[in-house]
Amino acid sequence: MKSHGYVFYIARAYRSSGVVDSAGIASIGHAWSGGMTDVDAYIFPCASAGCPSPQAQVDATVNALKGVKFGMIWLDIEVYKWPANHASNQNFILALGKALDGHGIKWGVYSNLNNWSNIVGSTWDALKDKQLWWARYNGRADLGDFQAFGGWTKPNIHQYSGDASGPCGFKIDQNYY
């Protein structure tokens, strides 16, 4: 991947179905050995009824990442089986963050205005001091065109393309930072 100009990789470490993503975690080691200079992980939380608690999801992820080098963990907050109650969703996300803090792990948020508004309400800004990985597939590798939400006035990373054709036949999401 590095020979194709890619230096940053973010692997899924936890699935929205409520289980650790073993393949995603294994790919972290491959990313480092492939020459990546920055490698992070993300949790796609399971937020519907019957899912493990936020603490259990974080604990499972952290346990699976033991011995694996990574920079930080991103909480993937996008519309997928979230309850309709904003306050409940806010508390769920805060509990995920508290669990990560308890493990001493640096973390940030992956979302966009539409997802954030639908899940927690556009004005909820309790995480405004966390880094934001902003998703907007506009095909532009820049940080422009950002519309503030959740207290963020600018993103740290912009995911500008999804399912692009990458090297070696892989489909990749492209990001700018």
Automatic annotation (TrEMBL):
Pfam families: Glyco_hydro_25. Keywords: Signal. InterPro entries: GH, GH25_Enzymes, Glyco_hydro_25. It comes from the Eukaryota. PROSITE patterns: GLYCOSYL_HYDROL_F25_2. The keyword Zinc does not apply. One of its GO terms (molecular function) is lysozyme activity. The keyword Signal applies. Belongs to the glycosyl hydrolase 25 family. PANTHER family: LYSOZYME PROTEIN, LYSOZYME-RELATED. This is Uncharacterized protein.
